[in-house]
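Here is one record:
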Amino acid sequence: MITTNLPLVNWSNGVVMIAVFAGVCIALVGIVLSIMNTDKKKQE
């Protein structure tokens, strides 16, 4: 049974990469929301 010894998750590197990816996604969503809120056209 060689397949039972295969690691399915690399906790040392995978969690760090997922956290960085989540941080980048949250930052991009925040930037887009801030641009949407500040880009109001003046009504005449």
